[in-house]
Recover the amino acids of this structure.
């Protein structure tokens, strides 16, 4: 690859050493597909892609895959990474699109050079014809993540297992992430069907700063009894602040109720311990395999996907969490799984 040494070093530290993703395919592979993601070594969800892409290479030994992510996401560094991957002339790119308008120019340059591009995990939310012209998006529908979580919570409240929502706060630690914004919108629409107000609070990716922002907010607005934590890592932050303020945030008929996201150790253990009413799976494993498969079929047979491919959401609650814990432990391993439970 023609990456500048310092950028390549950062990328490799993230994608190879930290994620354990070492290509098993031959140096003489026919195709090289590069995944460019915002999920670096500090994001436990990146484990799924290491497993998925290794399995894909085993099935298709004529493909080499690479997974690159900045240690800390910024639009500027992400654009630079896209541009330098493009200059290395891969046979395909799969990219998570956190801020579509910001990275559109860089991706259009790749597409104009004839490099097929798939979006994964987070797509361009604009309609087809207005969005970045990638082949297709593979991932969850983040709007439905929020809407179905709201519908599940309302059903649980009507069944008498948790209080009825009075006012919901969607806690978003990343204002630039279009998918997280869409989750908040879905929650608001789902709760709005029962005339329950949902507000959004933008906090911070740093847990301590996020806790301070949330704590200050709740001291002023005290009528909130439901929280929607739109990243896996933010679930424990919300729970700890709510616990500290005496909001009794565990899942029962008293106090506040918290809804989480993602099928990682943090959120699954939160459901199992009764700290989260629900979480969800967005099919991370498929988000690695499917883009690679479509890039492969594009080259081999001229196939193109007929539309976006949704891999979630699947709601996980107390009734299904044990099954999910067993499955996810097989991906992470016991030591890594137990080490991430931060409640």
């Amino acid at each position: 690859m023609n990456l500048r040494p310092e950028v390549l070093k950062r990328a490799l530290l993230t994608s190879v050493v930290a994620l354990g993703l070492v290509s098993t395919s031959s140096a003489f592979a026919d195709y090289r597909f590069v995944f460019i993601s915002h999920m670096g070594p500090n994001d436990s969800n990146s484990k799924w892609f290491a497993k998925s892409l290794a399995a894909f290479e085993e099935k298709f030994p004529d493909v080499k895959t690479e997974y690159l992510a900045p240690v800390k996401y910024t639009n500027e560094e992400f654009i630079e990474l896209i541009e330098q991957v493009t200059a290395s002339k891969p046979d395909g790119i799969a990219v998570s699109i956190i801020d579509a308008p910001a990275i559109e120019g860089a991706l259009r340059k790749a597409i104009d050079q004839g490099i097929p591009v798939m979006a994964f995990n987070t797509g361009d939310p604009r309609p087809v014809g207005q969005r970045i012209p990638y082949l297709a998006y593979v991932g969850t529908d983040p709007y439905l993540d929020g809407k179905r979580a709201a519908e599940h919570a309302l059903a649980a409240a009507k069944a008498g297992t948790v209080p009825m929502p009075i006012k919901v706060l969607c806690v978003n630690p990343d204002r630039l992430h279009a998918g997280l914004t869409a989750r908040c919108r879905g929650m608001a629409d789902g709760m709005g069907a029962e005339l329950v107000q949902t507000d959004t609070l933008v906090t911070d990716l740093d847990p301590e700063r996020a806790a301070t922002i949330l704590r200050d907010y709740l001291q002023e607005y005290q009528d909130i009894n439901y929280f929607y934590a739109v990243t896996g890592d933010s679930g424990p932050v919300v729970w700890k602040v709510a616990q500290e303020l005496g909001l009794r945030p565990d899942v029962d008929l008293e106090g506040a109720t918290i809804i989480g996201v993602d099928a990682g150790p943090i959120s699954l253990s939160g459901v199992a311990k009764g700290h989260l009413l629900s979480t969800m799976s967005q099919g991370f494993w498929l988000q690695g395999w499917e883009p690679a498969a479509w890039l492969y079929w594009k080259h081999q047979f001229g196939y193109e996907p007929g539309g976006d491919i949704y891999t979630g959401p699947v709601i996980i609650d107390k009734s299904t969490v044990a099954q999910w814990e067993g499955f996810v432990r097989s991906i992470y391993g016991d030591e890594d799984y137990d080490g991430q439970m931060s409640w």
